[in-house]
C-alpha cells in the first residue's frame, strides 16, 4: 500500500494552513476593526469559494496560473519553471480555496472580543499593530486554533481544485483524495478503503478538537 498520497496531503495541508494563518489573521483584523470603501465586496470575494463549485474555482485558477496567465507568467519569469502541475501550484490553489475556512472562525473570535479591552489599549497609546499582538491575539487564540484546524481539514480532503490545477502526478500533486478516485476507477477497492478510512479518522479527530474548543469558549463566555 502506497501512503505517499496521504503524506503529500498532510504536507500540503500543514504548509498551506501555516501560510493561511499568516495571511488570514491580519486580513480578518482589517475586516472586523476597520472601515473602508468596498469592504462588503472584499468580504464577498473571500467567501466566494464557499459557494462556487471547486471545478469552476479550479478552472479560473488554472487560467490565472497557466503559461498565459498573470501569475503563471510572473512565476515563469522569476523561477523559469511553470506554476501549474507543481506542488507550489496546488499550494496556492489550496490556500485560495481554504481562505474562508480560516477567516470565518477568526472573524467570530474577533467580534466576540470585549471592545473595552481595545478602548483601554487605545487610551494607553497602543498602535493598531501593538493592540493586535498584545490584546487581540492573546484573547482570541482559540479562534486562531479553530481556523487552523478547519483550514487543515478542508485542505486534506480537497479534490476538484487540486485536480484542475495540479493533475495527478505521483509524489508531486497526487494527493489522497485524487488517489482514492483513481483507485475506485481501477476497481482497487482495498486501497481506496484504506485511504478513505485514514481521511475519515483524521476528520473525526479534527471535529472532536473543534467541538472541544467550542465548548471551552462557551464556558469561558
Summarize the structure.
This protein has 221 residues and is mostly helical.
Structural write-up:
The N and C termini lie far apart (about 45 Å). By secondary structure, the chain is mainly alpha-helical. The chain has helices at about 5-35, 40-45, 55-65, 70-80, 85-110, 115-125, 130-140, 140-155, 160-165, 175-185, 190-220. It has one domain: MetI-like (MetI-like fold), CATH 1.10.3720. The protein contains eleven helices and no strands. Helix 1 (about 5-35) crosses helix 5, helix 5 packs antiparallel against helix 9 (about 160-165) and helix 10 runs antiparallel to helix 11 (about 190-220). The mean pLDDT is about 90.
Shape: globular
Q: In CATH terms, what is the fold-level topology?
A: MetI-like fold
The CATH class is: Mainly Alpha
CATH architectural group: Orthogonal Bundle
Give the helix tally.
11
Q: Give the oligomeric state of the chains in this entry, treating copies of one chain as homo and distinct chains as hetero.
A: single chain
Mean pLDDT: 88
H/E element string? HHHHHHHHHHH
Helical content stands at over 70%
Secondary structure layout:
Elements: H1 4-33, H2 39-47, H3 54-65, H4 70-79, H5 87-112, H6 115-123, H7 128-139, H8 141-156, H9 160-166, H10 176-185, H11 189-220
Helix pairs in contact: 1-5, 1-8, 1-10, 3-9, 5-8, 5-9, 6-7, 8-11, 10-11
Amino acid at each position: 500500500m502506497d501512503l505517499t498520497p496521504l503524506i503529500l496531503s498532510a504536507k500540503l495541508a500543514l504548509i498551506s494552513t501555516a501560510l493561511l494563518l499568516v495571511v488570514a489573521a491580519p486580513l480578518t483584523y482589517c475586516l472586523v476593526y476597520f472601515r473602508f470603501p468596498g469592504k462588503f465586496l472584499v468580504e464577498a470575494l473571500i467567501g466566494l469559494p464557499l459557494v462556487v463549485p471547486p471545478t469552476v474555482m479550479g478552472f479560473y485558477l488554472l487560467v490565472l496560473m497557466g503559461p498565459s496567465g498573470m501569475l503563471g507568467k510572473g512565476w515563469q519569469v522569476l523561477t523559469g519553471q511553470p506554476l501549474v502541475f507543481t506542488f507550489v501550484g496546488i499550494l496556492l490553489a489550496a490556500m485560495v480555496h481554504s481562505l474562508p475556512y480560516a477567516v470565518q472562525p477568526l472573524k467570530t473570535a474577533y467580534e466576540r472580543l470585549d471592545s473595552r479591552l481595545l478602548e483601554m489599549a487605545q487610551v494607553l497609546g497602543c498602535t493598531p499593530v501593538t493592540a493586535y499582538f498584545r490584546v487581540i491575539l492573546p484573547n482570541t487564540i482559540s479562534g486562531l486554533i479553530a481556523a487552523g484546524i478547519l483550514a487543515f481539514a478542508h485542505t486534506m480532503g480537497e479534490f476538484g481544485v487540486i485536480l484542475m490545477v495540479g493533475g495527478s502526478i505521483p509524489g508531486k500533486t497526487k494527493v489522497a483524495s485524487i488517489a482514492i478516485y483513481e483507485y475506485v476507477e481501477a476497481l482497487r477497492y482495498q486501497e481506496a478503503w484504506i485511504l478513505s478510512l485514514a481521511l475519515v479518522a483524521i476528520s473525526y479527530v479534527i471535529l472532536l478538537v473543534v467541538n472541544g474548543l467550542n465548548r471551552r469558549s462557551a464556558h469561558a463566555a
